[in-house]
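HUMAN: Quick job: go over this next protein and say how the chain folds.
***
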Amino acid sequence: MAPDTPRQGLDPAWEGGWLSGARRCPSPNHGDRPATASIDLIVLHSISLPPGVYGGPEIEQLFTNRLDWDAHPYFDRIRGLQVSSHFLVRRDGEVLQFVDADARAWHAGASWWRGRGQCNDDSIGIELEGLEGNPFEPIQYTQLARLCEAIRQRYPIRHIAGHEHIAPGRKHDPGTGFDWTALRRSLRWDMACFPPTTTAGTSPCDPGSDA
């Protein structure tokens, strides 16, 4: 398989809040969004379980509350954790969906962005399989851009940020290995959609305009 060939296509069609091209792995870790929520933010994360180990079932098991806490010494540090994200992009480009995008996933925690707190309320979380600070695969950027565009077709996305931006000091993912410039060039969204290099910004953007 060529390195830039997705393991699967990403159909931009939606079935309610479920993306047709993503493999469904429903998580019980979700809730209702506030009635006034405007889903205008995408939050990017990175995850690997155990840290630096790729391709196994552990991420899916964590998000669906099926992880064997005794299977690895690291898991004792997160024992009992109940979290989720809407999507996961694996190293080979496969896209999984855990939570209906109309619902509130548990990915952001204590957070603040574009003048609002509690980012879980009005964001969509995307996990990239990887270790914070390390590079990601080219196919992950390809699939991530496709996924962001598909999300924008259904939701009024005006901002995209990393977990490190919405929870600075507490979180550091996706980290220095993530190429924001590459993502911006692929999406061709306005610069104001993306995190500034030095300070947290709250400027709105027109997602349809070119960079």
